[in-house]
Q: What sequence folds into this?
């Protein structure tokens, strides 16, 4: 790429990414200065378990109130472990200047659409703005939940030891209060207290996770008195605002951890980059009712060997190809999703401020219009406001945020500007006006390990490139392999490109003077659109491999290899099998035969990830068989 200097991290034109010196990626290109450390894997704050574990069913009396609050979709989002390395790799590409991820083929971001479709959280409604200071938060907790947390002991000035600090209550203390099932004869008041506890767990544990990891803020309960009042609010926009703020903060050099709706970040990436998504047990099965997050229920990831995985993700994101990106992952699902997953679609492309109490972050779908099936032109300049990013709650609990952010709240309410453009589907040309504008203004490669000179192959940093290829080949997923790459081209190719197709599958010796090598298409029949069975034994002949020209210039090779030449001339055996297209099952007879007879991983660095996935896939298969029996 002539407009990118491979010897510099970039950008070469610094009119968009103006805060690069403060960004965590700036420490990855060159060795850090004295006193600076190389950023590692971020600690991703997330509840260790969901509210409903081990197949537990929520009491229908509680569920009815959660539905009344408009959070039925969020309740159905399955609990999953977080892939800290994947989220870190994405944070390294998040830019606070544009509120988007900067990737090789343009900007991408998490929008109101993603929040509503994946998480089932309403995005249309009133902004979540209320009071952040009360004289008596323990009493408010008692009013909403029926329990009053003990306050700090007199004279105890230690930080973060009390059960309640302002509106933030220790989650474990709350869980202990509601550990028993709802009694059969519970009063409606008690049912509502249980419902508020579950609502608080959903909001605090999934959408508004803070960096403490062990506390939840009861200030959200002010919107659930009565509980049905919660349905008026745009929880999706508030959660997106909170997430943007955490992404922006985590992208700083010194950050070690991140909060917010990180499960959404992970599922967003899995939907748009299927090649990094774990192999699912039943990828084509009918989805149960609920938001799209249910599609990934049961997905398993690992946080072991975090730095190795992070390096692999860096390589994967830096080397993204156009056909590895799914710009519109929802279009085949929208019709079948519940109404609450698309109720706000009239504002999905709204260019608005997203408000969450003191936090205001800009929503800029005009920078990622391909995510909506529209043509991406050069976007207008955007101001994500350094001043707004500086606002924290510290020392400002008394603020009237509704008054403070009145202008932004009015903009949210108006939804005056909806991003729009002509329809566009498919791959954008390398020389498209947008891409020509984008490349010199972005940071494509954040480490030297993933960089190269333009589109040219280089032998510089050879070991780094080799390691990247090793990781790529060892972690290949079925949807990354094109078994029949020529079938759409054959008709348009010249006759000489297909004149010999009658012998393409011929099992024959290939002869070149003294060299004889076996041609064995019967071992790769999927390359010809055919079913691959266990192949017969093959002898590639050590003796033939030993033959060289050294000391044998006088040999009559036509006489020496007469038998092989006759076999070539006869083309007696053409490999054949029934037609087969698509992905082969993990438990197909051929795959069961193949795996123990091959060497999949040639380095320890690439082995653990896929070994784990293989074991999990086998366990899930066995579990299914047992369930069916």
A:
């Amino acid at each position: 790429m002539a407009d990118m200097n491979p010897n510099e991290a970039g950008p070469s034109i610094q009119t968009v990414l103006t805060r690069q010196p403060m960004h965590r990626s700036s420490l990855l290109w060159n060795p850090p200065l004295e006193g600076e450390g190389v950023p590692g894997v971020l600690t991703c704050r997330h509840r260790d378990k969901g509210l409903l574990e081990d197949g537990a069913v929520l009491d229908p009396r509680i569920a009815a109130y959660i539905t009344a609050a408009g959070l039925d979709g969020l309740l159905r989002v399955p609990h999953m472990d977080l892939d800290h390395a994947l989220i870190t790799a994405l944070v390294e590409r998040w830019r606070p200047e544009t509120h988007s991820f900067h990737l090789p083929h343009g900007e991408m971001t998490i929008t109101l659409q993603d929040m509503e479709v994946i998480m089932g959280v309403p995005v249309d409604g009133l902004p979540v703005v209320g009071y952040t200071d009360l004289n008596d938060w323990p009493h408010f907790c008692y009013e909403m939940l029926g329990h009053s947390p003990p306050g700090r002991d007199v004279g105890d000035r230690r930080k973060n030891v009390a059960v309640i600090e302002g509106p933030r209550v220790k989650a474990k203390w709350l869980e202990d209060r509601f550990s028993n099932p709802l009694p059969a004869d519970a009063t409606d008041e008690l049912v509502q207290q249980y419902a508020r506890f579950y609502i608080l767990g959903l909001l605090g544990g999934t959408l508004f996770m803070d960096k403490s990891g062990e506390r939840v803020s009861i200030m959200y309960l002010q919107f659930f008195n009565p509980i049905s009042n919660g349905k008026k609010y745009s929880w999706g926009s508030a959660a997106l605002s909170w997430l943007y703020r955490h992404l922006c903060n985590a992208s700083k050099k010194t950050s070690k951890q991140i909060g917010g709706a990180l499960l959404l970040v992970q599922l967003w990436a899995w939907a748009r980059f299927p090649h990094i998504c774990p192999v699912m047990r039943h990828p084509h099965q009918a989805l149960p009712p609920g938001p799209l997050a249910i599609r990934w229920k049961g997905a398993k990831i690992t946080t072991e060997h975090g730095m190795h995985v992070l390096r692999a993700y860096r390589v994967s994101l830096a080397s993204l190809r156009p056909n590895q990106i799914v710009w519109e992952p929802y279009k085949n699902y929208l019709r079948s999703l519940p109404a609450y997953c698309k109720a706000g679609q009239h504002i999905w492309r709204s260019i608005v401020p997203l408000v969450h109490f003191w936090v205001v972050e800009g929503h800029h779908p005009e920078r990622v219009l391909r995510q909506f099936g529209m043509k991406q032109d050069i976007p207008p300049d955007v101001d994500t406001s350094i001043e707004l990013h500086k606002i924290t709650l510290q020392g400002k609990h008394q603020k009237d945020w509704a008054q403070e952010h009145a202008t932004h709240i009015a903009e949210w309410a108006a939804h005056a500007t909806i991003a729009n453009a002509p329809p566009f589907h498919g791959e954008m040309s390398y020389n498209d006006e947008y891409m020509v504008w984008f490349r010199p203004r972005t940071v494509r490669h954040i480490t030297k390990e993933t960089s190269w000179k333009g589109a040219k192959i280089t032998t510089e940093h050879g070991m780094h490139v080799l390691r990247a290829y090793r990781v790529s080949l060892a972690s290949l997923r079925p949807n990354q392999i094109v078994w029949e790459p020529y079938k759409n081209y054959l008709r348009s190719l010249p006759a000489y490109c297909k004149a010999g197709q009658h012998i393409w599958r011929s099992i024959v010796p290939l002869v070149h003077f003294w060299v004889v090598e076996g041609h064995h298409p019967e071992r790769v029949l999927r390359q010809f659109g055919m079913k691959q069975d266990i192949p017969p034994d093959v002898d590639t002949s050590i003796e033939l491999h030993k033959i060289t020209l050294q000391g044998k210039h006088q040999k009559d090779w036509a006489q020496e290899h007469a038998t092989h030449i006759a076999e070539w001339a006869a083309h007696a055996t053409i490999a054949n099998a029934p037609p087969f297209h698509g992905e082969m099952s993990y438990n197909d007879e051929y795959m069961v035969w193949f795996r123990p007879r091959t060497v999949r991983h040639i380095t320890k660095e690439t082995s653990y990830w896929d070994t784990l996935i293989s074991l999990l896939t086998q366990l899930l298969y066995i579990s299914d068989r047992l369930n069916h029996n």
Observations:
- The two ends are 57 Å apart (CA to CA).
